[in-house]
Amino acid sequence: MTVSGTPTVRLGDLAHARSGDKGDRANIGVVANDPACYAHLDVYLTEAVVARYFRPMGIGPVRRHSLPNIHAFNFVIDRALGGGASRSLRLDSQGKALGAALLELRVPDPAATEAAS
Predict the structure, then answer these.
(1) Structural domain range at position 74
(2) What pTM, to 2 d.p., does this model score?
């Protein structure tokens, strides 16, 4: 698949994720497979990209915290759960599914961006 003519891969091909929630806030940890994947994701997996991906859910602000020593990022997403587990009418009102959903995000293929450099 391509985005704007650039070949892409699933985020899940470059990293794994773990997620959870507290109230109406979701927390998604994304851990890159290796240092090269981390460096690539540091450029292409931004707050804006994650916010745009989850925008159809009506989310609030997204904050990214970089954890370079463990090749990871932590995304905190406000208003991500339709009010939270006890208030939401969503089928899955907990943050556990958001990590799996984020792994389906298409990001530029590292091989293609490296070849273009």
Answers:
(1) 14-83+91-116
(2) 0.85
Distance CA 93, CA 89 (A): 7
At 88 the pLDDT is 46
Q: For 63-107, how does the pLDDT look when each residue is reduced to its tens digit (9 = 90+)?
A: 999 999 999 999 999 988 765 555 444 444 456 788 999 999 999
Distance CA 47, CA 6 (A): 20
Give yes or no for a contact between 26 and 77, defined as CB atoms under 8 angstroms apart: yes
Q: Taking Cα atoms as reference points, which of 14, 18, 37 lies closest to residue 26? A: 18
What's the CATH number where 50 sits? 3.30.70
**DSSP symbol at 45:** S
- In angstroms, what CA-CA distances link 8 with 26, 60, 96, 109? 26, 27, 25, 4
Q: How many CA atoms lie within 13 A of 67 on its CB side?
A: 11
Residue 30 host element (H or E): strand 25-32
